[in-house]
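pasting for the record
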Amino acid sequence: MKSLPAYLIVFDGVCVLCNRFTNYVIKHDQAELFYFTSYQKLLETSSDTPISGLPAHLDKSITYYRNEKFYQGSKAVLYIFKDLFGWFHWSQLGWFLPRFLRDFFYSRVANKRYTWFGRLASCPIPAPEIQHRFL
């Protein structure tokens, strides 16, 4: 089984919205807690070395690996913001909404992300100063 970094964000490498979100996290992650990979790259590497617990449908959601567990959808985003900013950030108010409601809105945006935000021809190569944070 392949070993993963403790805090890994798996995103859609060709999705403009997903890339913007990743860049936002990188900009605010002064402690360099997070590591990143596109789901395309993760699936490519996991075909050689299986990854235990890897969820299905990586192409439909941001996936967050933390504390040896994978999270997807709104729960993944809330945990990312919690680990980035702490419990007392405004984003943590999202935990008060029922999960079915959070995931409903999350899935609507996820299903329309290419239409609303666009799609890249290929996954961008990270800048040299942050390449060490990408798998």
